[in-house]
Specification:
alpha+beta, HIT family, subunit A, 5 strands, about 20% strand, binds guanosine-5'-monophosphate
């Protein structure tokens, strides 16, 4: 079996994280290197490597995660001003942790296009 990712170790509570939300399906915690005043990672507990691993059967899970993101945006005070949700998928997108995750970032203005 391949080695656990850092996020799987956070799910299994083997390493600490600043958790802001948890349920049976997903976990949300502050990014260790925040790129904005609010920078939270929302991850499924299911071990999917990236968005490219998502199958049609995962639709309820992904829908649930986006409902959690919306809720967190309100709780963390960025819903009104606006926020960005990013999922880096694969090498060209500079994904560094091979466990599906959504960055919820807000609290400042962002540029477009991304670098
Ligand atoms: P990616 O580059 O794969 O889209 O995003 C991975 C994110 O995970 C990065 O923003 C990075 O700062 C964050 N990260 C990596 N290791 C840890 C960790 O051990 N704890 C937390 N809270 N965040 C981490």
């Amino acid at each position: 079996m391949s080695e656990k990712t850092i996020f799987k170790r956070i799910i299994d509570k083997e390493i600490p994280a600043s958790i802001v939300y948890e349920d049976d399906l997903c976990l949300a915690f502050h990014d260790v290197a925040p790129q904005a005043p609010v920078h939270v990672l929302v991850i499924p507990k299911k071990e999917l490597r990236s968005l490219d691993d998502v199958e049609p059967e995962d639709a309820p899970l992904i829908g649930h995660i986006f409902a959690v993101i919306r809720r967190l945006a309100r709780e963390l005070g960025v819903a009104e001003g606006g926020y960005r949700v990013v999922s880096n998928c694969g090498q060209n997108a500079m994904q560094t942790v091979p466990h599906l995750h959504f960055h919820l970032i807000g609290g400042r203005g962002f540029a477009w296009p991304p670098g």
